[in-house]
Amino acid sequence: MTLTRWSPITGLAALEVDGLNRMFEDAFGAATFGRGGWVPPVDIFETKTKDIVVKAELSDIKREDIKVTFENSVLSIEGERKFEGNTEGTQFHQVERGCGAFRRSFTMPPSVDATKVEAAYQDGVLTVTLPRREDTRPRQIQVNG
After folding, report:
1. What is the dihedral of CA 80, 81, 84, 90, to 10 degrees?
2. What is the CATH number of domain 38-134?
3. What pTM did the predictor assign?
4. Taking the domains of the chain in order of start, what are their residue ranges?
């Protein structure tokens, strides 16, 4: 028999984590987090010229199954990764890659030029470039005198 010393801090931290997990399950459904749901990872960064770039990892999704929209300063990416395995007679030992429909939305600054948003898909990565309007870009002011 092994005795383990109980720590109130460790015990409370575990309760908090369990509470957070239950909160997410209640809000998004049990299948969304950790039980087969799928949310693609996304990186958002700003370039030297202050353009915003959004990169989403969408491996094994066909280009025609991806929809990108930009409306009212909100960028939305949606699509579906289909499970193409033949499950009849197949015994899976481990399945970690989620399948199904997804939708991610991100609020962008009002300085984005909606007419110049571009999206490219290569090697399983969707790259959306959101340029800033020219009048909002930083510019050098010459000091006279």
Report:
1. -120
2. 2.60.40.790
3. 0.67
4. 7-37, 38-134
